[in-house]
């Protein structure tokens, strides 16, 4: 199965700062990567799909890039509601797999 | 708006069975694939299974293949997860989620997952 490795595990930042999250795939997945936001006690939410497309209702401060094996989620100008755990997910091959997550916490 | 409400979770002993249900509303249920995803305590998300819009195909994670079965009843707008031979490592919050859609010309789901239900907790313990 395709393994997704996310880094860093924890990112400590202040509101207004920029967050850069990384996701590396064990083999090429073209652009078949999504990002999800998960807050405690809530349902996860799709943020980005197909590497760079924002899901419905996601603000423009969220952006995604990459291809092949290396992908990045960038959160510019962090808002208080952006602090959460972010997971990447690939759909290039079965089974679908998620990365281990990056927690973006308030510094 | 889209609503997904899971039910059927609980505490069960290892080796036993449990069936989860997910009642869907707010969209054309019979047009899109449906997923189950789980999160074990203190761990990340793990995709479990998907079923095609018409129930014609299913796919599973290696960890559950042969023990879990996903199914759907489009007349009831409900998707199910039958879990047999449960193990301690199956303990998790199980989320039902909608495939983003639309399906492609072959009927395949997009495998982008949204939205998700609030989840139901399954605890496997003796």
Short note summarizing the structure:
The complex is a heterodimer of chains A (107) and B (126). Chain A contains no helices and 11 strands. Chain A is mostly beta strands.
Features:
heterodimer; A: 107 residues; mainly beta; 7-stranded mixed beta sheet; 4-stranded antiparallel beta sheet; globular; B: mainly beta
How does this structure look, described?
The complex is a heterodimer of chains A (107) and B (126). Chain A contains no helices and eleven strands. Chain A is mainly beta. In chain A, a hairpin with a 6-residue loop joins strand 4 (33-38) and strand 5 (45-49). The mean pLDDT of chain A is 97. Chain B is mainly beta and 126 residues long. Helices cover 0% and strands 48% of the residues of chain B. Chain B has strands at 3-7, 10-12, 18-25, 34-39, 45-51, 58-60, 68-73, 78-83, 92-99, 113-116, 120-124. In chain B, strands 2, 4, 5, 6, 9, 10 and 11 form a seven-stranded mixed beta sheet that branches. In chain B, a hairpin with a 5-residue loop joins strand 4 (34-39) and strand 5 (45-51). The mean pLDDT of chain B is 96. At the A-B interface, strand 4, strand 5, strand 9 and strand 10 of A face strand 5 and strand 10 of B.
Write the layout of secondary structure elements.
The complex is a heterodimer of chains A (107) and B (126).
Chain A: E1 4-7, E2 10-13, E3 19-25, E4 33-38, E5 45-49, E6 53-54, E7 62-67, E8 70-75, E9 85-90, E10 97-98, E11 102-106
Parallel strand pairs in A: 2-11
Antiparallel strand pairs in A: 1-3, 3-8, 4-5, 4-9, 5-6, 7-8, 9-10, 9-11
Chain B: E1 3-7, E2 10-12, E3 18-25, E4 34-39, E5 45-51, E6 58-60, E7 68-73, E8 78-83, E9 92-99, E10 113-116, E11 120-124
């Amino acid at each position: 199965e395709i393994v997704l490795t996310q880094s860093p595990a924890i990112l400590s930042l202040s509101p207004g700062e920029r967050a850069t999250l990384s996701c590396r795939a064990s083999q090429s997945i073209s652009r078949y990567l999504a990002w999800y936001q998960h807050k405690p006690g809530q349902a996860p939410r799709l943020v980005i799909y197909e590497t760079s497309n924002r899901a419905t209702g996601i603000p423009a401060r969220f952006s995604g890039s990459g291809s092949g094996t290396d992908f990045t989620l960038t959160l510019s100008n962090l808002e208080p509601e952006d602090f959460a755990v972010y997971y990447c997910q690939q759909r290039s091959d079965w089974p679908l797999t998620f990365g281990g997550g990056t927690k973006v916490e308030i510094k | 708006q889209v609503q997904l409400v899971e039910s059927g979770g609980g505490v069960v002993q290892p080796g036993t069975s449990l069936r989860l249900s997910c009642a869907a509303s707010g969209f054309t249920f019979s047009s899109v694939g449906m997923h189950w995803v789980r999160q074990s305590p203190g761990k990340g998300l793990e995709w479990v299974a998907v079923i095609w819009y018409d129930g014609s195909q299913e796919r599973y994670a290696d960890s559950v293949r042969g023990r879990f079965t996903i199914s759907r009843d489009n007349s009831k707008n409900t998707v199910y997860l039958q879990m047999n031979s449960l193990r301690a490592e199956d303990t998790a919050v199980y989320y039902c989620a909608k495939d983003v859609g639309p399906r492609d010309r072959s009927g395949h789901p997009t495998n982008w997952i949204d939205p998700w239900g609030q989840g139901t907790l399954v605890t496997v313990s003796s």
